[in-house]
Amino acid sequence: MEIFKGQNLLEFAERFKTDLDCEEYLSHWKWKNGYCCRKCGHTKYQVRKDFSRTCNICSDTE
Question: What domain range includes position 46?
């Protein structure tokens, strides 16, 4: 990924101190262009504790 280019291991470890930090970053990256349910196409959702999204219409979680 371009964002990590030129970054050393210490800088990377500082940014992602825990698994939760990494999960939050990946969640942001996955839905950077917005959420759209893969089953019904609805765009409204709830964010779960693990940063996954649950559709408000069909309850699909991804």
Answer: 2-55
